[in-house]
TrEMBL record, chain A:
Family per record: Belongs to the snurportin family.
Ranges for domain Snurportin-1 m3G cap-binding: 100-276
GO cellular component, one term: nucleus
Region (Disordered): 1-75
Keyword Nucleus recorded: yes
Biased composition annotated in UniProt, kind: Acidic residues: 57-67
Residues in the signal sequence: none
UniProt KW keywords: Cytoplasm, Nucleus, RNA-binding, Transport
UniProt biased composition (Polar residues): 40-49
GO biological process: snRNA import into nucleus
Protein name, per record: Snurportin-1
CDD domains per record: Snurportin-1_C
Biological function: Functions as an U snRNP-specific nuclear import adapter. Involved in the trimethylguanosine (m3G)-cap-dependent nuclear import of U snRNPs. Binds specifically to the terminal m3G-cap U snRNAs.
From TrEMBL, chain B:
Listed GO MF terms: small GTPase binding
SMART domains, A to Z: IBN_N
Domain Importin N-terminal: 23-103
Signal peptide region: none
Any GO BP: protein import into nucleus
Name of the protein in its database record: Importin subunit beta-1
Organism of this sequence: Rhynchospora pubera
Family: Belongs to the importin beta family. Importin beta-1 subfamily.
SUPFAM superfamilies in alphabetical order: ARM repeat
Keywords: Cytoplasm, Protein transport, Repeat, Transport
Location within or outside the cell: Cytoplasm
Length: 420, 870
């Protein structure tokens, strides 16, 4: 026999549907408790008693706030306050900005659970810079703090056009790579948007926000009078096999320079961080091995280190790692001063990895570095460059790591132990 | 050019799996590489009479699936795809479809007519394919048209009407369709197939006939033809004609009067003597008339305008003849009808209709039914006894308690003894009747159950719960409603205490029964257990409920050990876990109500949490909704202690929040976030980045079910209240979302109640979010909200002026106004001076009967005054 028509409920069908009821009860309880919690916060009962139906006789008058200040400010992080930064002058500005970029470490070995916790994308080749838009103009600054371009853009408050969406003094800061061939800023991270900081947000969230917000502004439009350079978002992948494959060998509209890996849960951290990693080989980058000041690949690995007052040569890590030293005589002879960045060459056969620690052996001074250079090499870079010359970390190693992760996941037991 | 794909289409239906898969992937590849030519090739296959029927049929199905899908998102994609196909190719495809209607092969014709309707559903609203209707109608008016083409044409017209909305067709098109369809029903001119196709097409076209039904002559003509068709010689055609009459009763109730005598005769004759599938439609006609009249009465309830709405009281007028006709059907039971819940036959439909009649006319039905009950209930054959009991049970809702109570009182003993009748049909219906009595007529203050008959009732129920599964299930229902009568009854619920142990034991063993054919009996038993727990007197029974909790936890543990081989096993395990988690949830909610019983839960909190996590771990993709609900209840009970479970629980919570496909799971998970925030306060902070990021993603997801949005907004408020000024970093993301939603809520057109309710929920969520944020920022960061104060006041004013505003929104809006004044203080002086609606709004709240609302309004008034005098 056919069932009853759709909308006709047979009278004899069991009437109990407790599940829907449980849902409704839960919703009602949640609503009640929300209202209780909010009322507690309002201290409703006591306020009602003390205020009464008539106006309170002795109102607490609070001092007027400066409204203009309150709206555009990046509150919370004093070291990151562009309003304050704007008051800095000359070299201070450069120094300040130079400290704000997140600097990925070089990948010397594969982090665990790459496929679960990381993103990957092909890094555009070009100049890493901070792009700040505010008060009707857009400024890009290189890693050393110097200005690359000053121009109008469609970023929020990035040009002197009407923008109704917020106060003109509110800042937006993007982490970009300027790609010369197509004169495009490839945005690799969003640090601040319309005056609000994203420093304390996870990469997952920042990328999500970057993708949804940038497109709203028209910043990706082709250049025009009030929008000198185009801003493009880089396609970001989950770091699974497919994502790694796509990043490694997929077509991109820009010249690739290695791969960048971002830990999904990491906040935007100024300075060196192991939660962002760079890796390259000859397939995905033209610049695997470092060049010297003439643009040639030297036969011996060269590193840039900072001279300390005890004669030690250190990396730019925090804390710095001493990799060798120069004798006082040599320092005096070559006119070096404390804080100078020096280029030294390593005699390959003397360089050792002992228990994962780098032992550079004897260093040969090549010279001072060029003036625009702001930082010494990092420890991870030295290590990566060394490995690249001798036993590089290959794409196959990355693939193998992801494959072993996923097979481990399958075999993981479902048991949950609770330690209360 | 079209490609030859016959072989691939045939291979795709091959019994050899390998051949099939290869062919399917070839076709898919073709589709992906060149959709327009793929579609063209399919239509070429469909139209080609030289091709085998099997390949043509599949071609038609693939074509249809390229135009329409159940999933609305997918459907939208397919629509866009079709729209972009080259017009020349589209027109070739459409030509092929129309040609196929003349095919010799009936499968090809009928597939083509469906595809035509799918194309029409995309193109007609876009004012394309405007000559379709004309071309179809031409098939009907040409003399030499073969019957098969006419049949296929009518079918197409019917499907087209089903697919497109009435507003998309011009009135002259509708007129022409109706004319063609009505002519197609002419018995003298057309054979069976054409007439069947015509009456079915009419069914779909009825919605379009608004104008025609307003015109008396046209209406008379249509009704005359349908009534004639309802006595055709072929039962399929009669059935389709009655289906039309059911639809007419529902759409055009207001114009039925002149035809009611005829319709009554037609339906009564059919119910009495026609074949079952026809008679069922005739009964459905009266059920539909009842639906209409009940709706009219509900609409007029409490107003004096009862007579201004068209209410013809057809049921009341036909009552004396209709009720006997329906009572006769009750005697036409089937032997196995109690075994299957979905069973639908004359007796079921008749009883259902009788129940609707009772709800429509109230007391008037009683004197017409009781003689039948009295004459048959003592007869020894099961049919008479069961039918009499069913009749009695059916009319319990509608008539007044005064009218029913004496009869129930007199009959209760008899019903209780009938629980021992040799016929399981009689016992099944008797148990159902008892549950209806308890559901509708029993309350602590009522006279149906008292200390004198309760012992006997309990004895009978606890015995009968061991009866065959279908009877046991009805007995569970009776216990459920018996307990429900004592809900919120305070000390009155103590009367159940002496029986509680036995009731719980009986329900637990019922839930264990191995003889149940489906899990319906278990679920009835557990759900009844929930109601018994809810209605039991706490703290009197706290210990017993505590023991029950241990038993349920033990059973939940046992579900993890079940051997899972098939998907059926998996589903059974999942259902069982859902039921058990449901019981735990109810126990937590019941016991956390009093100081004395609270320790019972706290002692077992670890154990419960371990179990819930194991339940989650059992299910790879979806989060168990019931476990989620139970965890919400537990979090509220344990308070800050819940923090120790978070590291383990968080991933499942996140998974639940991400599960927008199953929106109820998502919605419940959102609610649990609120529970957790209230439990943990700022200890929830480490999880907020993750939670906020998922919630914001959900909101940006076009596929998210809209009902989840309001709870997400409320949840923002919960989080803000819990973490206070730490919420600042989410503000830039949350505020635009809230403003966007506020704006949206003023733009949505409220065409129906659902939308109205949704708009109210959305606004309530928005206000609750702002309240939480304002309160959270009050001490340190209130100024961050200053730029938004103007917008908030404007939005509140717009909501205040909306006549569809419900009480929930009112409360939330007034509270938020107070929070705004409280948090921002003198900064708002000018704003509050400029807008005056708040005085009027508060005035309205002071008139309310709701104490809570008046209290909140008083507070808000105080806050605003403080600002104004500052």
């Amino acid at each position: 026999m056919a069932p009853p028509p759709d909308h006709r409920r047979p009278i004899k069908r069991a009437a109990i549907s407790d599940q829907q009821r449980r849902r409704e009860v839960a919703l009602r309880l949640q609503a009640d408790r929300r209202s209780d919690a909010q009322n507690r916060a309002r201290q409703l009962a006591s306020s009602v008693l003390s205020l009464g139906p008539e106006p309170a006789t002795e109102p607490e008058v609070e001092p007027e706030q400066e409204m203009s200040e309150a709206s555009g400010q990046l509150a919370g992080r004093s070291d990151l306050d562009p309003v304050r930064a704007a008051r800095l002058r000359g070299p201070e500005v450069r120094k300040w900005f130079a400290r704000q970029l997140l600097l990925p470490e070089w990948m010397v070995d594969v982090p665990p659970s790459l496929d679960r916790d990381w993103y990957v994308f092909p890094r555009p080749s070009g100049k890493r810079c901070f792009v700040v838009s505010s008060n009707g103009t857009t400024i890009s600054r290189l890693r050393n703090g110097s200005i690359l371009h000053r121009f109008p853009s469609n970023l929020p408050n990035g040009a002197r056009t009407k923008d109704v969406s917020g106060p003109a003094s509110s800042y937006s800061i993007l982490d970009c790579i300027f790609h010369e061939p197509d004169e495009t800023y490839y945005v690799i991270d969003m640090v601040c948007w319309r005056g609000y900081s994203l420093y304390d947000c996870t990469a997952e969230f920042r990328f999500f926000w970057l993708n949804s917000k940038l497109s709203e502004t028209g910043a990706s439009d082709p250049p025009s009078q009030y929008h000198r350079y185009r801003f493009n978002v880089v396609q970001i992948y989950e770091c699974n096999l497919a994502g790694l494959q796509a990043s490694y060998s997929g077509q991109v509209p820009y010249v690739k320079d290695g791969l960048l890996f971002f830990n999904k849960h990491a906040h935007y951290q100024a300075g060196n961080t192991p939660l962002a990693l760079v890796w390259k080989d000859n397939v995905c980058s033209q610049y695997v091995l470092d060049t010297d000041s003439k643009g040639q690949i030297p036969s011996q690995q060269q590193v840039v280190l900072e001279l300390q007052n005890d004669g030690n040569l250190t990396t730019s890590d925090d804390p710095p790692v001493a990799l060798g030293s120069l004798s006082r005589d040599l320092i005096a002879q070559s006119g070096l001063r404390v804080g100078n960045l020096v280029r030294v060459a390593i005699k390959d056969e003397r360089m050792r990895l002992v228990d994962g620690k780098l032992d550079l052996g004897e260093l040969q001074l090549v010279g001072k570095t060029n003036h625009s250079r702001a930082f010494a090499d990092t420890y991870s870079k030295v290590l990566f460059q060394h490995a690249a010359r001798h036993a590089p970390l290959r794409i196959e190693d990355l693939v193998a790591s992801i494959q072993s992760n996923s097979s481990m996941d399958n075999s993981q037991a479902l048991d949950v132990e609770m330690e209360g | 050019m079209a490609m030859e794909i016959t072989q691939a289409l045939l291979a795709a239906q091959s019994p050899d799996g390998q051949v099939r898969t290869a062919a399917e992937s070839n076709l898919k590849q073709f589709q992906e590489q060149n959709l327009p030519h793929f579609l063209l090739s399919l239509s070429a296959e469909l139209v080609n009479e030289q091709k085998p029927p099997e390949s043509r049929r599949l071609a038609g199905i693939l074509l249809k699936n390229s135009l329409d899908a159940k999933d609305s998102f997918r459907k939208e994609q397919l629509t866009k795809q079709w729209v972009t196909v080259d017009p020349a190719i589209k027109s070739q495809i459409k030509e092929a479809l129309l040609t196929t209607l003349a095919s010799q092969v009936s499968d090809a014709r009928s597939t083509a007519s469906q595809v035509i309707a799918k194309v029409a559903s995309i193109e007609i609203p876009r004012k394309e394919w405007q000559d379709l209707i004309g071309k179809l109608l031409a098939n009907m008016t040409t003399k030499e048209t073969p019957a098969s083409l006419k049949q296929a044409t009518l079918q197409s017209l019917g499907y087209v009407c089903e697919e497109v909305s009435p507003s998309d067709l011009e009135q002259d098109q509708v007129n022409a369709i109706l004319t063609a369809v009505v002519q197609g029903m002419n018995q003298a001119e057309h054979g069976f197939e054409v007439r069947l196709a015509a009456i079915r097409a009419l069914y779909n076209a009825l919605d379009f006939a608004q104008t025609n039904f307003e015109n008396e002559m046209e209406r008379n003509y249509i009704m005359k033809v349908v009534c004639e068709t309802a006595v055709s010689k072929e039962p399929e055609i009669r059935q389709a004609a009655f289906e039309c009459l059911v639809s007419v009763a529902s759409i055009y109730y207001g114009v039925l009067e002149p035809y009611m005598q005829t319709l009554f005769n037609l339906t009564a004759n059919s119910i009495r003597g026609d074949e079952e599938q026809v008679a069922l439609q005739a009964i459905e006609f009266w059920s539909t008339v009842c639906d209409e009249e009940i709706a009219i009465q509900e609409e007029c309830a409490g107003t004096d305008e009862g007579n201004s709405v068209l209410h013809f009281r057809f049921v009341e007028k036909a009552l004396h003849v209709l009720v006997p006709v329906l009572l006769e059907t009750l005697l036409k039971q089937e032997e196995d009808q109690d075994q299957d819940d979905g069973m639908w036959n004359l007796s079921m439909a008749g009883g259902t209709c009788l129940g609707l009649v009772a709800r429509t006319v109230g007391d008037a039905v009683v004197p017409l039914v009781m003689p039948f009950v009295q004459a048959n209930i003592t007869k020894s054959d099961w049919r008479s006894h069961e039918a009499a009991t069913f009749a009695f049970g059916s009319i319990l809702e509608g008539p007044s308690v005064e009218k029913l109570a004496p009869m129930v009182h007199n009959g209760l003993d008899f019903l209780l003894s009938a629980m021992k009748d040799p016929s399981s049909h009689v016992r099944d219906t008797t148990a159902w009747t008892l549950s209806r009595i308890f559901e509708i007529l029993h309350s602590p203050s009522g006279t149906i159950i008292d200390q004198s008959n309760l012992p006997k009732i309990m004895t009978v129920l606890l015995e009968s719960i061991r009866d065959v599964p279908n009877v046991a299930e009805k007995v569970c229902g009776a216990i459920y409603f018996l307990a429900q009568g004592y809900e919120d009854a305070g000390s009155a619920s103590s009367v159940l205490t002496p029986y509680l142990g036995n009731i719980i034991t009986a329900l637990l063993s019922t839930a264990d029964r191995a003889d149940a054919s489906s899990n319906r009996l278990w679920s009835s038993a557990y759900e009844t257990l929930n109601e018994v727990v809810r209605c039991s007197n706490i703290p009197e029974n706290a210990n017993m409920i505590g023991q029950l909790l241990h038993e349920i936890l033990k059973r939940l543990g046992q579900t993890m050990e079940l051997e899972i081989v098939s998907t059926d096993d998996k589903e059974r395990q999942s259902n069982l876990q859902a039921l058990l988690c449901g019981v735990i949830q109810v126990i937590i909610q019941t016991l956390n109500g009093s100081e004395e019983s609270l320790p019972v839960i706290l002692q077992s909190a670890d154990q419960m949490m371990v179990m819930f996590l194991r339940v989650f771990a059992c299910h790879s993709s979806t989060v168990h909704e019931e476990a989620m609900l139970a965890i919400g209840a537990l979090a509220y009970t344990t308070g800050q202690e819940f923090a120790k479970y978070m590291p383990e629980f968080y991933k499942y919570l996140e998974r639940g929040l991400q599960n927008f496909e199953e929106y109820q799971v998502c919605s419940i998970s959102v609610g649990v976030v609120g529970d957790i925030c209230r439990a943990m306060d700022d200890k929830v902070l480490p999880y907020c980045d993750g939670i906020m990021s998922v919630l914001l993603k959900d909101l940006s997801n076009a596929l998210l079910h809209r009902s989840v949005k309001p709870p997400i907004f409320s949840c923002f408020g919960d989080i803000a209240l819990a973490i206070g000024e730490q919420f600042e970093k989410y503000l830039p993301f949350v505020i635009p979302m809230l403003q966007g939603a506020a704006e949206l809520s003023t733009q949505i057109e409220c065409t129906d109640e659902d939308t109205e309710e949704y708009v109210n929920q959305l606004r309530r969520g928005i206000f609750e979010a702002y309240s939480g944020i304002l309160q959270g920022f009050k001490n340190a960061k209130a100024d961050l909200m200053l730029p938004h104060a103007g917008h908030l006041l404007q939005f509140t004013e717009a909501v205040f002026k909306d006549k569809n505003r419900d009480e929930g929104v009112t409360k939330a809006a007034v509270a938020m106004l107070g929070d705004l004044a409280d948090a921002l203080g003198p900064n708002l002086k000018l704003l509050f001076k400029d807008c005056t609606f708040h005085a009027e709004f508060l005035g309205e709240c002071f008139q309310s009967d709701d104490d809570q609302l008046r209290e909140t309004a008083t507070w808000t008034q105080g806050m605003i005054r403080r600002v104004l005098v500052s």
